[in-house]
Structures are given as structure tokens and as C-alpha cells.
Design brief:
Layout lengths: L3 H10 L4 H14 L25 H4 L3 H13 L8 H7 L18 H18 L8 H25 L8 E9 L4 E7 L1 H20 L7 H20 L3 H10 L1 H11 L4 H29 L7 H4 L6 H18 L9 H7 L2 H26 L1 H28 L3 H8 L2 H11 L3 H32 L15 H15 L5 H16 L1 H25 L16 H19 L18 H4 L4 H5 L9 H5 L1
Antiparallel strand pairs: 1-2
Helix pairs in contact: 2-4, 6-7, 6-9, 7-8, 7-9, 8-9, 8-16, 8-20, 8-24, 9-10, 9-11, 9-16, 10-12, 11-12, 12-14, 12-15, 14-16, 14-17, 15-18, 16-19, 16-20, 17-18, 17-19, 17-23, 18-20, 19-20, 19-22, 19-23, 20-21, 20-22, 20-24, 21-23, 21-24, 22-23, 22-24
Length: 619
């Protein structure tokens, strides 16, 4: 006679088809180290007394693998037993199919590698002897393959990222300054992953754009790697003190790069960068210290300070400091005084780094601190953010329309994507917040592309005045195509990644900030006119016989601009990632719009509009 346990096991497998029954039995043997199925009556699994007087899984205190085996068995064999939907979801939450190749490589220090590998390589470059530039090519190769390695690490993290988890992933936490509550705490969620992808792509593009550097090659690429390391550190930092250090650390290498390799007005441009970004760093320090004090003065950890219960007045003061810090980085009008000179005088590689990931840190700060931690202040200040976005887009479009210097025009146009990101944050709605998160990636690429293509065109045409340039499309076909893609990306046309960004942003903003949304849309109309005039003059106008000789973009310049344009096209065509035909299994890209979802629902939950109750509906 079969034992009761065996009768239960037979009962459980009775309604399972043959192959599925074999897989079920194999999973039971695999989950139970002893090779025996610990099948029990369903009600025993939830702590009720069974027919044999045994305790349930919740009270038994057995090993986790045995509890998991019992939970899975009750899900498979609950056909004749009552089981609520909530119990089913709690017992086994479904997960999306992983991309092929996910899980092949893991590292407990994945985020630290993104920070400290560039630092180590930069320090090594500083000590490599390079008499008379003999090893310039080797230095450039080292910088390129370092960034390629970082992108490989990012690809691993991207494919192994679990987009259904609302918590931080790849976390690292070590005590650093326990006396004041500072920890080396790193972690990313969906928005952080988006920013890291942007940093990785713009990092490679910066190196490719810098292959034409001929003087002081070794310090140039060492400083470029240090700038990238500081940007990555600010993205993954989960301690406000560490975040502040990385935020401020990016100023020094970027300013030195402008001073050493910039244009004729490089000194003025570098000082403007230091002044405005220094002001933003000071405002961030004030806000961080206020958070630290309001949270009890025990820890700078974001899990503590951003979850502390603060009064609306304190939230308002901290949020205003964060807006000042963010406005100097994006930039937003009227704290934009650095953008024209910096993007016009810096070398193309630095232009890509600044207009891409470095400036997106401003919007990332607002998303993390204002939207994610201070909903009362976010609702109160949302009209201010919408007004800043509208002023920025309108000013940028008018300034680009009046600009004579093509690099000045590119710098003004690079302000537009950041303003659209801020409009999504001002919407304080789940759809607007999702649009702003995607805009961190698409806006950074579009800004870097428009500023970079203007810098490359000015160098190849040996002139910066739009009055001198004209009819360049036949002589510079590569630049002409890339310039056109950059213009379309700024306007958010279909098939480009910025299209989805602007659709989500405007649909989210029209419900909560209709005036600001209409104003930004009008500003985009002015921007479209400025782009049309610029393209008509420079690419398709009549050639100027007095203009100097021109040449098309070099291989490195074509690759770095093509990389930025290709990323915009790829995400625009496959926002959810390509799928294996006939299935829902990702081919090799899980889809950026899927991966960024981790953490957004938790961040946007305070801004979900509640449905009216019965009492309100009857009135």
C-alpha cells in the first residue's frame, strides 16, 4: 500500500500530461537535495494542520529549496483546490523570457568596474613614456579598447538586468566614513541603466571623435577617461556624499580639456563652465546637507535620506536647490550661460561628452531626488519646471535662428532635448515620467549628435559662418546625411527614438500642464524653422566661391556620428528589442523600453491619479 505522501504525489501528477509530468518529477528531485518529493496537501502549504498532522511550509522553517518545491507543486496541482489569484502571484511571479546569452558572466563588482577601470587606465597612461609622440597611436588604441571593454560590461549588465524588479540591482555597499554616515554604495535601476548606456555610447563616440588629436595625446585621453569615470560614478552612486563628489569631479577634467585643446576663446569657455557648474555643485551640496540634517544626521545613504519624512517647507527648499543644480547642467534658461562658448570652443570629443551624458546628469538629479523622493514639492513646483522648459525651448529656437556661427547654432539646438525631458518631469504623471526617462537616452544622443555634427562640419569646411558656408551637400555627403538625421531627431519624427519620447512626454504633459505643453510645442515649431533655415543655407544653398576648400568627414568622424545616429535609429525601430520570428523571445536585445521599466512604477506611484469614489461619482 502506498504511503500517504506517495498518494499525494500521484494525485498531484494525475492531471499533468506525460512530458510535463516528467519535467515536474525531475524538478522535484532537483529541488529536493535528497531526491524525494516533499509533496503535501495544499492547505498544509499555508500553515494549516494537514491530514497527517504536519506543519505547513510557512511554519516548518525548512530549507528554502524545499519550501520552493512545495510552492511550485501546489501551483501545478491546484486544479481541484481553491486558490486565490493573489496567492498564485505571490507564489510564483512570472518573468519575461531572457535574452539569449544572458547569465553567461556575472561580477559582484560590475558597477565598480565601470568607474575604476577608466581611472586605472588614465593613471597608467600618465606614466607611459611617449617621447616625441612615438606612441600616440598606441595611446589612442588603449583609450578606444578601454571604452569598448566598458561597453561590453554594460552589455552584460543590460542583458542580465531584471526589468520586473522595482529595487536597485548590482548593488555594492561598503563602509567608508562611518563617523558621518558615508558609505560606498552603488546600484542602478531602470533610469540608471538608461544613463549608463548613454554614457557608454558617448564614451566610445568621444574617443572616435578625438582620433584627430595630434598634440599632447597622452594627457588628452587620460583626462577624457577621468571625465567618463566621474560621470559613471555619479550615475551609479547611492550615497549623496559620493554622488556629490562624482558630480563635482567631472568639472576638472572637462575644463582642462577645453583649456588645453579648445578654440581661440577656450579660456573664457573653461571659466564659464567652472563658474556655472560650480554654482550647481554648491546648490547640490546645500541640498544634500539639508537632506542629511533633516533625516537625522546619521547617514548620507539615499535609501535613508530620500525616504525620510520631511515637511512640505523643507521639501520645497531642498527641491529649489536641486532645480538650480540641474538647470546649470542641462542647461535650462536662464542658467545656460556656459553652453554656447563651451560647445563652440571645445574639441569635438569633449563636445560629445558634455552635450551627451554629462549634461543629462541634471535631469537625472531631478528624477532621482525631486520626482522620486519629494512628491509634495514636485506637485508644487511642476508649473515652474514647465515654464523653464518652455522658456528654454523658445529661447534655443530663436537663438539658433539668429546665429551666424554654425557651432553657436548647434550649441543652442543642443538645449532642446533637455527641456523636453524637464517637461516630462513637470507632468508629474506616470506617462510623463516614463517619457522623461527614455528622453535621458534619446535626448543625450540627439544633443551630442547635433553639436558634434556642427563641430565636425566647421572643422571640415574650415569656416564657421553660415554666410560663408553653402552648397556643402554634394561635397560632404556623409556629413549632410548625418546632419539631416540630427535635425529629424531633435524634432522627434517617426522611426527615430525621440519620437516615442516626445509622444509619451506630450501626452503626459497635456493632461497636467497644458499651457506648458503648448508653449513647448510652439518652441519646437520655432526650432523646426531654425533647422530648416540652417539646412537650406549650409547644405542645399548656392556654393560660395570665396569659401575655403572642404572635405567630407574622416573615417573616425563618420563612425562616431554614425554610432550616435545608428543608436537613435535602432531604438526607434526596435524599442522593445528584436524578437526571434514567431516567438516573444528577444534575439539579443531585451529592448530599452522594457529594461527601463524597473523602478519607474515605484517612482511614479505617488503621481497616479486616483479614480473617483462612489460618493464623488454620485455628486
Amino acid at each position: 500500500m502506498a504511503r500517504p505522501r506517495d498518494r499525494d504525489a500521484v494525485c498531484r501528477c494525475r492531471s499533468i500530461p506525460g512530458r510535463a509530468r516528467d519535467r515536474y518529477r525531475a524538478s522535484c528531485r532537483r529541488l529536493d537535495p535528497g531526491g524525494r518529493r516533499r509533496a503535501r496537501p495544499f492547505h498544509n502549504h499555508h500553515g494549516a494542520a494537514g491530514d497527517h498532522g504536519r506543519k505547513g511550509a510557512g511554519a516548518a522553517g525548512g530549507p528554502p529549496d524545499r519550501a520552493l518545491a512545495r510552492t511550485r507543486s501546489c501551483i501545478r496541482c491546484a486544479g481541484n483546490r481553491a486558490m486565490t489569484l493573489l496567492q498564485t502571484i505571490t507564489a510564483a511571479t512570472p518573468s519575461p523570457p531572457p535574452a539569449p546569452g544572458a547569465g553567461l558572466f556575472t561580477s559582484p563588482f560590475l558597477l565598480s568596474l565601470l568607474i575604476w577601470v577608466p581611472v586605472i587606465v588614465a593613471v597608467a597612461l600618465a606614466f607611459i613614456p611617449n617621447p616625441r609622440g612615438r606612441y600616440d597611436v598606441l595611446v589612442k588604441q588603449i583609450a578606444f579598447f578601454t571604452n569598448l571593454g566598458l561597453v561590453f560590461i554594460l552589455f552584460i549588465g543590460y542583458n542580465q538586468f531584471e526589468n520586473f524588479l522595482p529595487t536597485m540591482q548590482y548593488e555594492e555597499k561598503l563602509p567608508w566614513l562611518p563617523a558621518i554616515g558615508v558609505t560606498y554604495h552603488l546600484g542602478i535601476d531602470g533610469p540608471g541603466l538608461v544613463m549608463l548606456l548613454l554614457s557608454g555610447l558617448t564614451g566610445i563616440a568621444s574617443v572616435l571623435a578625438s582620433l584627430g588629436i595630434r598634440e599632447r595625446v597622452r594627457p588628452y585621453f587620460a583626462l577624457l577617461l577621468l571625465a567618463q569615470a566621474s560621470i559613471n560614478g555619479a550615475i551609479v552612486a547611492r550615497d549623496m556624499f559620493v554622488f556629490l563628489l562624482f558630480w563635482g569631479a567631472s568639472i576638472v577634467p572637462l575644463a582642462l580639456l577645453i583649456i588645453g585643446w579648445g578654440g581661440p576663446r577656450r579660456i573664457s569657455a573653461a571659466w564659464r563652465l567652472v563658474g556655472y557648474w560650480g554654482l550647481g555643485t554648491a546648490a547640490l551640496a546645500v541640498g544634500a546637507l539639508a537632506l542629511y540634517a533633516a533625516a537625522g544626521g546619521r547617514s548620507f545613504d539615499m535609501d535613508t535620506v530620500l525616504k525620510a519624512s520631511l515637511s512640505p517647507r523643507i521639501q520645497l527648499g531642498i527641491s529649489m536647490a536641486m532645480i538650480v543644480a540641474a538647470a546649470t547642467r542641462l542647461p535650462l534658461f536662464p542658467l545656460h550661460g556656459w553652453v554656447r562658448d563651451v560647445l563652440a570652443e571645445a574639441p569635438p570629443g569633449v563636445v560629445v561628452a558634455v552635450a551627451g551624458a554629462a549634461s543629462r546628469l541634471g535631469a537625472f538629479l531631478l528624477l532621482r531626488v525631486l520626482i522620486g523622493a519629494e512628491p509634495a514639492a514636485a506637485h508644487l513646483l511642476s508649473p515652474v519646471l514647465a515654464a523653464l522648459a518652455a522658456l528654454t525651448v523658445g529661447y534655443a529656437g530663436l537663438a539658433a535662428l539668429r546665429a551666424i556661427d554654425i557651432r553657436h547654432a548647434g550649441a543652442y539646438l543642443a538645449m532642446v532635448p533637455g527641456a523636453i525631458t524637464v517637461l516630462g518631469l513637470a507632468a508629474v504623471s506616470p506617462l510623463g515620467i516614463a517619457g522623461s526617462v527614455l528622453s535621458l537616452f534619446t535626448g543625450g544622443l540627439a544633443a551630442a549628435l547635433i553639436a558634434g555634427v556642427c563641430a565636425t562640419l566647421a572643422e571640415r569646411a574650415q569656416a564657421r559662418s553660415v554666410l560663408v558656408l553653402g552648397g556643402l551637400a554634394p561635397r560632404m555627403p556623409n556629413v549632410a546625411w548625418l546632419f539631416t538625421i540630427a535635425a529629424l531627431a531633435l524634432l522627434g519624427v517617426p522611426l527615430l527614438a525621440s519620437f516615442g519620447t516626445e509622444v509619451m512626454t506630450f501626452f503626459g504633459a497635456f493632461k497636467t500642464q497644458p499651457i506648458g505643453a503648448f508653449a513647448v510645442a510652439a518652441g519646437l515649431g520655432v526650432t523646426a524653422v531654425a533647422l530648416a533655415v540652417l539646412l537650406a543655407r549650409v547644405l542645399f544653398g548656392g556654393p560660395n566661391p570665396d569659401a575655403p576648400g572642404v572635405s567630407d568627414a574622416s573615417l573616425g568622424e563618420t563612425w562616431y556620428l554614425g554610432l550616435l545616429a545608428g543608436a537613435l535609429l535602432w531604438v526607434g525601430l526596435f524599442p522593445g528589442g528584436p524578437k526571434i520570428p514567431g516567438t516573444e523571445v528577444p534575439l539579443f536585445d531585451p529592448g530599452l523600453i522594457n529594461q527601463m521599466a524597473a523602478g519607474i512604477s515605484d517612482m511614479a506611484s505617488p503621481y497616479v491619479l486616483q479614480a473617483p469614489g462612489p460618493a464623488a461619482a454620485s455628486q
